Amino acid sequence: MDPDGEHSSGRGRIPGGGPEARDIAEVPAVEIITAAAVHLMSAAAVKCGLAEDADAQDHLDLDEARSLITALAGLVVAAAPEVGNQHARALRDGLKTLQLAFREASVVPDPPGDGPGERLTGSVV
After folding, report:
1. Are 70 and 77 within 8 A, CB to CB?
2. Positive or negative CA dihedral for 109, 111, 113, 117?
3. Are 89 and 67 in contact (CB under 8 A)?
4. In 3D, which of 73, 65, 63, 61 has the Cα closest to residue 37?
5. What is the CA angle 112-117-123, rounded to 5?
């Protein structure tokens, strides 16, 4: 039981509840999925050294970029049927751009099909 005397299973509750739960309940799934993908894309771009500031190369971290791109690929592949063709196409284009940027930033390129996320999406080269 929680402090209010109600049973708390942890299901269906957002920590803090209240207005945050109502706000998120009004957001369509496609917007939440797209927002998550954009966060992954942005982080991967920075880790691939594509940041727009003068210190972009200081942020280069291909191990981190590989993880982020692979996670993005999983999200894009899994979500494509749910978000519709227009959104899925934009997500796939962004993913492919990052996969190619990763290959360009790599000193020793992965064999075709072994780059980040390519086991889920197929080779980008």
Report:
1. no
2. negative
3. no
4. 73
5. 30
Is a pLDDT exceeding 50 seen at residue 62?
yes
| H runs (alpha helix) in the chain | 18-25, 29-47, 62-83, 85-105, 118-121
Please give the Cα distance from 122 to 113 (Å, whole number): 6
Task: Tell me how crowded residue 12 is: count the other CB atoms within 10 A of its CB.
Answer: 6
User: Residue 90: pLDDT band by 50, 70, 90 thresholds?
Assistant: very high
Going by C-alpha positions, the residue among 75, 98, 90, 96 that lies closest to residue 29 is: 75
81 vs 23, 52, 99, 107, CA distance in Å? 25, 33, 21, 35
